[in-house]
Amino acid sequence: MMRNLDVTTLRSFMTVADLGGVTKAAGFLNLTQSAVSMQLKRLEEMLGVNLLDRSGRTVALTAEGEQLLGYARRMVSLNDEVVRRLTHDDFEGRLRLGVPHDIVYPAIPHVLQQFSRAFPRVKVSLNFSFTSALKDEFSRGEFDIILTTEASPTAESEVLCETPLVWVGAIGGASWRRRPLRFASCQNCLFRPGTLAALDQVGIEWEPALDSSSDRAVEATVSADLAVMSMLEGTEPPHLEVVQHNGALPDLGFQHINMYGAERDTSEARSAMADMLRQAFCTLMPRHDRLDRRAEAPRLASIS
What we know:
Layout: H1 7-19, H2 22-29, H3 33-47, E1 52-53, E2 60-61, H4 63-86, E3 93-100, H5 107-118, E4 122-129, H6 131-139, E5 145-150, E6 158-170, E7 181-183, H7 192-201, E8 206-208, H8 215-223, E9 229-232, E10 240-242, E11 254-260, H9 268-284, H10 290-296
């Protein structure tokens, strides 16, 4: 008896593999968790193999799952190509996207991968900069869509999510305990004024750890446990971690991740990119009980 693989199910399997979990994949696909789980169960039953290793805290692919993933990518890609070609929906052109350095991971790589599969002939020009520079360039028409990190929404933007600003240090580090506190940041980092104001407000003495415009220099200093820095929670690189200071350092409030340019025209490629960014930041960024956090400390007026 001939057995046929379902492209929708393969797309769900790919998304689970890419995002590392059923819950995140369900949000990304606008499906319920149970619907995605049922798709995976039926796929495993049809093939007679286990595709996912569910024994750990995170979902991992089995050897059979790794093998299927390569085929799934090719089949889904071919399916999408056929649909575009036969419906005359094969878009071409360029889309200019600007993103602050500190929110590239984990969302942007997933968005680029998904967009490339859907619009393989649209070239995405991705540029990284600081929020203030991105807004200036966007106002001059140099970007189609930009993301920003700002303390509040604006009339021209759409809020994608709200994320805590947290203290970050070396893994297992102790520099956050030292006084004066050594603080590291780029010269252009606009989180800096609000972070230092928070330290001054609670009377914690501090000193600058370096004077640099390089993000890598700042991260190297912090990873060597010579200083701490402030970052959006969920964006810290693997060689750094959120400091569990238990109230020894001040709360830094929240930042909005805003999107500009999504409503400028009716371009299908731009609309699709905006939808993918909405889904990615909704599902991939950490979630918190924000009402409780707001009650504990006032929001700082800092932006980056």
